[in-house]
Amino acid sequence: MIVGYAKFSKRHPYFHIVLISSLTLIFLISAFILIEYETVELVAVIVFIGSSLPFFAKASKYKQQYLSD
Questions:
Q1: Which segments cross the bilayer (predicted)?
Q2: Residue 65 binned pLDDT confidence (cut-offs 50, 70, 90)
Q3: Could you give the C-alpha distances from 43 to 4, 21, 55, 61, in angstroms and in order?
Q4: Rounded Cα–Cα distance for residues 17 and 65 (Å)
Q5: Of the N and C termini of the chain, which has fewer Cβ atoms inside 10 Å?
Q6: Is 59 buried (19+), middle (13-18) or exposed (0-12) by CB count in 10 A?
Q7: Phi, psi of 67 (to 5 degrees)
Q8: How far is CA 36 from CA 10, 33, 49, 57, 66, in A?
Q9: Where are the domains of the chain?
Q10: Which residues contact 14 (CB under 8 A, 6 or more apart)?
Q11: 3-class SS at 38?
C-alpha cells in the first residue's frame, strides 16, 4: 500500500499536495475546536490524522529512495 501511494503521488503531485493540505487544515480546525469549545468528539479526527502521518512518511521515504529522478 505504501509503494502504491508513493507511485500515485509521484504521478499525481497536485492531488498529493491537496490531500496533505486538507488533512493539515482539518487537523488545525479540529484542534482549535477541541481547545476552544472542549468538544471531545473531535479527538477521533485528531487521532485518525495522527495515525496517518507514519503512512505518508514511509511513502515519502520510499519515493525518495526508489522513485527519484
A1: 12-34, 40-57
A2: very high
A3: 29, 19, 19, 28
A4: 20
A5: C
A6: buried
A7: -115, 15
A8: 38, 5, 19, 30, 43
A9: 1-67
A10: none
A11: coil
Which residue type does 33 have? I
What grid cell was written down for 1? 500500500
The set of cell numbers assigned to 66 is: 526508489
- Cell numbers describing residue 3: 509503494
Local structure of 11: helix, strand or coil: helix
Question: Each residue of 20-44: pLDDT tens digit?
Answer: 999 999 999 999 999 999 888 889 9
Is the distance from CB of 69 to CB of 53 less than 8 angstroms? no
User: Cell numbers at residue 27, please?
Assistant: 487537523
The mean pLDDT of 42-56, rounded to a whole number, is 93
Runs of H (alpha helix) within the chain: 2-11, 13-37, 43-66
